[in-house]
Design a protein that fits this description.
The protein has 257 residues and is mostly helical. Helices cover 61% and strands 2% of the residues. It has a domain at 22-105 and 135-210. It has helices at residues 6-33, 36-39, 42-46, 51-67, 78-85, 106-117, 133-149, 153-159, 167-211, 228-238, 250-253, and strands at 70-71, 76-77. Strands 1-2 form a two-stranded antiparallel sheet.
Amino acid sequence: MGTIGPGATLSTGIQDIAALLPLLGTEQCEDHVSSALTKGYLYIAATPLSIFGSLGIARAGFKTLVASLAVAKWNFIGARKLANMGFEPKGTNLSLIMMTEDDRYLVENRVDSLLKELHIDSTKKVEVATKCLKWNITMILCTAIACMLSITPYIHLNIHEKNRLNQTARWIFPALRAFGGFLTATMIQLVIQSRITTLTRNRLATRRGSDKTSPSEIGSHGKQSSSPAVEKDLGAKGNLDSPEPGPSKAEETSPSR
């Protein structure tokens, strides 16, 4: 068996790293584009610059599209389908519109935790408002500039290198990659914003419905029946001689015949 020189060892190691880089780069870029609402629009703008970023954008775009779908008529909830298929939440923001192990959206758990931390018992005065217009415009402009810069590595290859393909075939791949990366990266942020707003409003509406007391029952004589707590107090005051006041009965409060 011959000895392996340092050159062969170095080239073999580079090949192993090159095979691993697409996986690491795709995961990293997917996390960046899924966390841009929290970490900043430059995370989106820089992602389409590399081919690994395009793969990460495609994965994040697929998750966002499916997670945002919910058709009650067909009993189809996209986030639940993603969880059943084994897709794990990635990123700070995309994970909010995906479901956790308790079969609830993560943003719903965050809303409940926030209301509990702020000691907000009634949600009647809690409203959801967003101010993302300026941020969205800046994000779109920066992403468009970065996507145009992603075509620059192909300029030398398509102009100076000998190629049997015609001009249209040479430029169609970089153009489609740049345009597709721009469209997908920007729409991911807009869809996540809209979905988070909708889920938050639905959760607050559900809590408002649970906070409301049940409508009082109307007695046979047109009088509103007392609540159990009030009936207990009345029974305690009307039977002071007994050692322990027992529960009041409906016959005691109703008028005699």
